[in-house]
């Protein structure tokens, strides 16, 4: 991550010359982490600078390891405001580069379903409580985005989600860019706060409902105010159970799927 202040400086040189010299300060002041901060810049300036940079770093790491992130930043400077053309040229130069760069992303993944506990021999149907499958965080995010900014597209969200699931990160970047919003940058910020809160995490649909409520206000609050309100709301969540704590079930059974080894929390934007 030590290269990111220099990357932000390179971005400011191209897209916001008046902000040159403030790269490190910008990253330090963004509560959602570096990835969300970079996403927010792409959304604010309606470009794909950091989306492309991230892919180039992956490509060179896999296909030409001698070229460091610092080299990528120099390259981005030479192709100022032509980032997409640079990316396509790189794909052509390195066979398999596109697959490397655009492989499945972890952004907005819902946690995997918990294994169903097996019923003991002779147990009657319904005597074992099976964990409920997690809700689809990606679908929740896209539907919430359209609820705010394009109500006519809400019905199309499930089909879009299935089509773009392997490239969810690119899809979310493209929505923020197309509509000139920063919903997914804010969402990534809240996901990280949610994971680090030391409390039972809120579900992704709950986070989307919170965001929709905040952004429906006129005028909407700032990103910093939304993060502050979300952190305050997390204080009402119960504390996380002790490591590997089990939850007793009716009849004396024990649900080990509630232990820390089974729990998963929302991931931040990468």
What overall geometry do the principal axes of the alpha carbons give? globular
Say how many strands there are.
Answer: 2
The percent of residues in helical segments reads 40-55%
Uncertain runs are 104-111, 254-270
Q: Please state the structural category.
A: mainly alpha
User: So how many helices?
Assistant: 13
Task: Walk me through the structure.
This protein has helices at residues 4-15, 23-28, 34-44, 49-63, 69-78, 83-93, 97-101, 137-149, 157-164, 168-179, 183-195, 204-215, 223-234, and strands at residues 247-248, 254-255. Strands 1-2 form a two-stranded antiparallel ribbon. The relative contact order is 0.13. Strand 1 (247-248) and strand 2 (254-255) form a beta hairpin. By secondary structure, the protein is an all-alpha fold. It is 52% helix and 1% strand. The model is unreliable at 104-111 and 254-270 (pLDDT under 50).
Give the helices and strands, then pairings:
Blueprint: H1 4-15, H2 23-28, H3 34-44, H4 49-63, H5 69-78, H6 83-93, H7 97-101, H8 137-149, H9 157-164, H10 168-179, H11 183-195, H12 204-215, H13 223-234, E1 247-248, E2 254-255
Antiparallel strand pairs: 1-2
Helix pairs in contact: 1-5, 3-11, 4-5, 4-6, 8-12, 11-12, 11-13
